[in-house]
Amino acid sequence: MRTLRLAGSQVRYVNTAFWRNPSRAFFTFAFPLMFLVIFTALLGNGTVDLGPITVKQSTYYVAAMATFGVISACYTNLAMTTAFQRDSGLLKQIDGTALPSASFLLGRILHAMAMGALLVAITAAFGHFLYQAEIPTGLTLVQVLVMMVVGSAAFCALGLAVSAAVPNADAAPAIVNASILPLLFISGIFIPFGNDTPDWIQWAAKIFPVRHFALGMQAGFLGTPFHWSDVAVVAVWGIAGLVLAVRFFTWEPHR
Fold first, then answer.
1. Using an 8 Å Cβ cutoff, are 185 and 191 in contact?
2. Residue ranges covered by each domain of the chain
3. FRET label pair with 157: which of 42, 56, 85, 193, CA 20 to 30 Å apart?
């Protein structure tokens, strides 16, 4: 109970620090919406075939950018921030305090998950009023919430795992972005899959969690079938990330 109580205090601290940095807060929420507007302006006049249904590309990108928002908050931002704090020596200082390590990391994870959920809500409202995208309700809302919670937790674990491989703060943007941007492209986030999408790309996308997370989010926004197997794949990747983070995470700067 003490660990959870201290984690709650850490969430409040991280949240206060987050909102006291206006530029960071602005771009965290602006990027998914900015990409949504750009992609719909450039590509939103067509349609996308998603199995038995066909949807407008404009509404397709609402679900895609909601997915992107969660990944940005829970993977990209968490991994980079952790690498920066380690390189500056802040993590080493925190490790030397009375604050339990689990409370510190859990507080960071819970805050990232909360930011991801807020991004999904903002993107859904934005897309509903501008592009008439459906807002999940009833059973689909429950399914999306399950996928969102599992996905955000999994990408937080993966973010902490990849931060252990970052040698210094200068290398953080390159390594973190290199590990996620290709997956965003081959998973149908930025470019929808079509009939001419190479089989090898579709095969590769199924290996990684981004594609499965995107499919789960699409089910709520676009009415496509929801598969619990997608949740399971994302959860397995999250467990793998957690194992790697526990094994290789370090509080001290790399030499």
1. yes
2. 2-248
3. 193
